[in-house]
Amino acid sequence: MWIYFTRRLFLALAIVAVAVTLLYVMIHAVPGDPASIMLGPRATPELKAELRAKMGLDEPLPIQILGFFGDLLRGDLGTDVFTGREVGQIVFEKVPFTVTLIATSIGWAALIGIPLGCYSAIRRNTIVDKVTGVLSVSTIAIPSFVMAIYALLIFAVWLKVLPAIGAGAGGLLDTLTHLILPAFAVGVSWVGYLARVVRASMLEVLGENHVRMARAFGLPEKRIVFRYALPIAVLPTITLMGVGVAYLLSGAVFAEVVFARPGIGALIVDAVDSRNYPVVMGCVVVTTTLFVAATTLADLINALLDPRAREG
Amino acid sequence: MANARPTSGGPATGSAGAEPPLLSVRNLSLDFGSPKGRVHALRDVSLEVPKGRIVGIVGESGCGKSTLASAIIRLLAANAEVVGGSVEFEGQDLMALSERKMRDLRGRRMSMIFQDPMTALNPVRTIEAQMLDIQYREPADEQEKRRRAIAMLDTVGIPDPANRLKAYPHQFSGGMRQRICIAMALLVEPALVLADEPTTALDATLEVQIVNLLKRLQAEMGCSVMFVSHHLGTVAELCDDVVVMYAGEVVESGPVRDIFRNPGHPYTQALLACDPGRIKQKTRELPTIPGEVPNLVSVPHGCIFKSRCREVHDRCEAEVPGVHPVSNERHRAKCHLREPGKAATRAEAKA
Ligand SMILES: Nc1ncnc2c1ncn2[C@@H]1O[C@H](COP(=O)(O)OP(=O)(O)OP(=O)(O)O)[C@@H](O)[C@H]1O
Ligand SMILES: [Mg+2]
Fold first, then answer.
1. C-alpha distance from residue B149 to each of B116, B132, B135, B195, B210 (Å)
2. How far apart are CA B257 and CA B235, in angstroms?
3. In a domain, B6, yes or no
4. Residues B181, A213: C-beta atoms closer than 8 Å
5. Of B9, B127, B151, B168, which one is least surrounded by beta carbons within 10 A?
6. Ligand 1: which of B28, B31, B32 to mutate, most ligand atoms within 8 Å of CB?
């Protein structure tokens, strides 16, 4: 188990390094000279050159990347050229908002979607199963930003039961009420998605030989479902949720913009807009790490649940 | 009597004494729904398993042995439908029993050893968890149940059972898993064990060991066993009675010695013909007989074996053979040639 754990950790670090390098190259390939955009069209060439030097943009790309990783190892994500603030500070100020949003979204989606899928599989072709099926397909089809806008309209603008924008001024209740709408918008399509996946894999597992064997010993159906089938049926769901964090990150970007919530998503949008490379890169490093951490965590949970995976 | 109604009922292994058999399957017919039509997988199957006896079921792959076992314990695929007949077990008709009552029988009065040991155990639960689970009806405490599980694993020859109990199925070889399945089936001390090829994953020496073990445990516990096998040698070694199946029908049944010494059905004869002298030890797999198994979707008229029978004659074409005694009343075959007073027909066919 520990060997598996360390191996997974090293793999995760390697993935982060490769991904960040690729993203660095891609971001710098975006057309538009950051110095011109920042300083405006009427800046003198000398001023532009000075800014480029300050941002380290005059060096060849490989040197830039090596320098970036060197700084990264020292825990330095660079400096925001506009405000002169530490990028690390700017980014980590926003990270908790995004992480909370994503965790809440996937959390409530799993809490409802998995039991719903399990129930649909056991009570196949009942009304609950059919309604879940239809709702799942329709919610999966609706993009989360559309969900966000409608949630905002209905609950905040028309019904006025929930706050429309921001993340609250602190305090648990305030934070929670501000979380409801965005978490609903980001997570709702996941409820149906997870329900579908769990239903399908549950049906598959219930048809497997070992379930037949458990039945041949007259084990109570409840025990068969919860101890024999469900632990196997949720395995693909966990991997899926780990990978899904990437989608949730992009869903969070929309939700943060629509609900004017602080967070990595909103930060990235602003930073890309103004070609604020150090901040963009800071966000990229953090989101990549979040993503890799989520998939690694999913693998570890899988290994905990599935003895066969531990040895792999 | 079956003789009086020649077309109904397969040959039944009649119980020796007055005591009613533990299990009696009567005229059981079962279809599978499939895109190509209904597969008539079991047709008019009748057999009996007397108390404390081992009854062997033999026949080529696909003849319906597993389907028969699954039908008895009522764990059939969703597309299966019992279209006729009854299964009487300890005085109750299983086909008419409620699902709740059926579940109460499973793992208490009857247990099953499944054909494929690689997939029969739950991959995410330890052997211990699974072996304790199946004892859930026992009033004993966990310590006692664990002790019983270890003892049973030891009996079936799992080395170091106390430690191995904590392992997961994938940490055992196929042969080991098969023994664990056997241990589990016997652990609940059932009246009837449905053993679906319990020795296929074992090599020859292990097979002999396991067969001897099964025989010993069966004698000790006094349970009955329906033993499905491909191996004629194993059946000869282990079983009291034999039921020979072909393409979903019982073609011959009777005491093991009568069947092996004086097979009444041309199919059984063909199975044994390959090497009658060595059947007892050497024939591990069913010999292959030329020709193809008939299509079970549109079952041909007349005798089911006619397309491969060496002694086929005009009656076989349209007339379903009746069930006739061979060596004695308990040994019967479903063949026109065994019809009393028709011994001449066989000679004619040969000529
Ligand atoms: N779920 C199913 N749907 C349709 N046909 C089936 C189904 N299960 C079994 N059959 C068919 O029923 C027949 C009997 O199958 P069964 O598994 O009982 O044979 P078997 O005698 O146990 O063979 P083997 O020795 O290979 O285990 C076969 O023709 C098979 O194709
Ligand atoms: Mg079979």
1. 21, 7, 9, 19, 18
2. 11
3. no
4. yes
5. B151
6. B32
For B52, the token pair is 């404390």
Terminal C-alpha separation, chain B: 33
Quote the tokens at residue B44. 């008019």
CA dist., res. B95 & res. B206, Å (int): 36
Which residues of B are less than 8 Å from A218 in CB distance?
A: 103-108, 137
Best B75, B124, B137 member to test A by mutation, with max A CBs in 10 Å, is: B124
DSSP annotation of B106 = B
Instruction: Let me know how long chain B is.
Output: 351
- Band of pLDDT at residue B284, cut at 50, 70 and 90: low
* Encoded amino acid at A52, one letter: R
Asked if residue A54 has pLDDT above 90, the reply is: no
Q: Write out the residue range of the structural domain in which residue B32 sits.
A: 23-109+190-350
Domains of chain A by residue range:
2-87, 95-310
Distance from C-alpha of B282 to C-alpha of A49, rounded to nearest angstrom:
91
Average pLDDT over residues A191-197: 92
| DSSP H stretches of helix in chain B | 65-72, 99-105, 117-120, 127-133, 142-155, 161-164, 174-187, 204-221, 232-238, 256-261, 266-273, 314-318, 343-350
Give residue B274's pLDDT.
65
Determine the pLDDT at residue A4: 81
DSSP state of B156: T
Residue of B nearest to A304 (CA): B124
Residue nearest to atom 1 of ligand 1 (CA): B77
Query: Tell me, what's the pLDDT at B14?
Result: 47
Let me know: does B146 contact B132? Beta carbons within 8 Å.
Answer: yes
**What top-level class would CATH report for the domain A95-310?**
mainly alpha
Does residue B85 sit within a domain? yes
Given the cut 0.90, state whether the ipTM is greater than it: no
Question: For residue B303, what is the domain's CATH number?
Answer: 3.40.50.300
Distance between CA atoms of residues A67 and A61, nearest Å: 10
Distance CA B323, CA B331 (A): 10
In a domain, B116, yes or no: no
Q: What is the pLDDT of residues B60-108, one digit of tens each?
A: 889 999 999 999 999 999 999 999 999 999 999 999 999 999 999 999 9
Name the residue of B38, B57, B65 to mutate for ligand 1: max ligand atoms within 8 A of Cβ. Answer: B65
Judge whether B143 lies within some domain: no
DSSP secondary structure letters along B22-84: SEEEEEEEEEE--TTS-EEEEEEEEEEE-TT-EEEEE--TTSSHHHHHHHHTT---TTEEEEE
Q: What is the whole-number distance in angstroms between the Cα of residue B196 and the centre of ligand 2?
A: 7
Q: Whose CA is nearest to atom 25 of ligand 1?
A: B61
